[in-house]
Amino acid sequence: MDQLLAIRGFARVVEAGNFTRAADSLEMPNTSLSKLVQDLEAHLGVRLLQRTTRRVTVTPEGQAYYEKTLRVLRDLEDIDTSFNAARSKPKGRLRVDVGGSTARDVLIPALPDFMARYPDIRIDLGVSDRSVDLVADNVDCVIRGGRLESSSMIGRHVGDASMVTCASPAYLKRHGVPAYPGEIKNGHRLVAYISTQNGRAVPLRFMVDGERLEISAEHRIGINESNSHLAAGLAGLGIIQTFAYCTRPALLAGDLVEILKPWRPPSYPFHVIYPHNRHVTHRLRVFIDWLVQALPGRLG
Fold identical between 3-86 and 163-266? Predict the structure, then answer.
């Protein structure tokens, strides 16, 4: 038995919550991973995992073993990273998750620069507005807007995005231009952005006399994906509030018109987020450092 490989395999099962996702992340057959863990259990003489047809749970002995061996795995990775950083360029695969409009308008246009600097790093980009489980889905980092809420994650600020409220010229011709934020409730149609975290419509936000104002008017249509949310505004379905970076081409072309500009809400912070209990590889570190330099000008 390759004990180090078995320990790494066991750790991934604990983090992923099942053998299938753990095996996929390690790029090995499910049966091979299961055999490794069984051999490790036989070697230790204890049961580390409790298996049923539906789920895998960690035994108390397994949890204690995971916590102790995780420190060893981190130390080994630190040693490897220190030598790799000193002697070679960063290489390997990075799994990055990012929202739809942020991928299209911010990250992907900037990526040629990163790929030219680090040709030995391969990026697997997951593009979705849904929340992901970084540990279970084996994602190295996510780029997301909003406040940092989870204490189990580390976030590094990569910039702030302006928010705009806008609608198509055709919509404004039919329904008129609201003169102030509260007028939105007087018969206007909203295209709401539906949060993928709680399934609720995100309220429109404004600054009125130095105070934050939220308007939760009834919407005719709700959409939980940022590119489609923008498309609905372009189609004249109603008023949208979204990031300035994704509306900029449409505003310049006259396909959208910004409204209620004097009451623009505060800028929206963006972070690159990664688990606090995961070792930061050399390739992830250079990617995060690059994001901090490359994204602020594109988000603003």
Answer: no
